[in-house]
Amino acid sequence: MAVKALLHYALEVPDQGAGEKFYSNFGLIDAPGRDGAVRLRPAPLQRESVLLYGGPRKRLHHLAFGAPGDEYAATREAVRRAGMREVDPPRGAPEGGFWVRDGDGNLVNIRDEGRVVPPPDAPLSLNSPGHIAREVRRGCPDAGLGARPRRLGHVLLFTGDLERQLDFYTRVLGMKLTDRSRQVIVFLRCTTDHHNLAFLVSKGPGFHHGSFEVGNVDEIAMGAAKMQEAGWQPGWGLGRHVIGSNFFYYIRDPWGSFAEYFHDLDYIPEHCAWEPRDFPEAEALYRWGPPVPEDFGRNRELE
Predict the structure, then answer these.
(1) Residue 226 domain-assigned (yes or no)
(2) Three-state SS string across the chain, please?
(3) Per-residue pLDDT tens over the stretch 262-272
């Protein structure tokens, strides 16, 4: 019994046009739909990763996970055994699957769908001491390069009750605890990625960021530059996380939350005997990079 994929996240936002512009500049493309939601997807995939609904203020509308085949019925039974009631879907939400509320009251849609991954990139050709992979060929990228997100990797949410959320997503939905940092942040996975969902302690629930994989560090840096040129600033990065190990750059969206480019995330095979580690708070965010913005951990949805 377990969910096996993070499919998409959906936000309520006061200006869908501004949200569409932000995510389009970020590198996603429109995925037409029949309802009032703005749907966006990475170009290599046919399934949307971000949905934007109209609302009075920014907040999480729902998360969607995939539990394909027998996992779908088993996950539904696990919800029933946990004494949780299914709820009606919100108006305009995607059809299909069943709906529950997590420990913070966030709507969660479980769908009989599997993980969809983009076509593989060509192997990176990098020269390093004693290892030459690129000969008689210039490595500097073209001036017009920007970020081309391949897929949604993870979502980070604020929570007012870390342990309750950890219990719901591991015991009920079958996700695995990968790592944590004390009583500050936890990282959970349902795929071979180091994490697909994370929770950061706050005084209440909220949406912090969605994170998308790109092909190399050049894409991160040049994608960040193009976002700044388009007026989306300031962000945070370039840097490298300790937990998950990925290179990162975060860009502020129109409502004070973030979208992240990532590259080179830790990979954990499904049946690997991985031991979660409890990291000190000093290593909860990054190994190197510019100083953390003062408002990076600020939950604006509580203001």
Answers:
(1) yes
(2) CCCCEEEEEEEEECCHHHHHHHHHHHCCEECCCCCCCEEEECCCCCCCCEEEEECCCCEEEEEEEECCCHHHHHHHHHHHHCCCCCECCCCCCCCCCEEEECCCCCEEEEECCCCCCCCCCCCCCCCECCECCCCCCCCCCCCCCCCCCCEEEEEEEEECCHHHHHHHHHHHCCCEEEEEECCCEEEEECCCECCCEEEEECCCCEEEEEEEECCCHHHHHHHHHHHHHCCCCCEEEEEECCCCCCEEEEEECCCCCEEEEEECCCECCCCCCCCCEECCHHHCCCCECCCCCCCCCCCHHHC
(3) 999 999 999 89
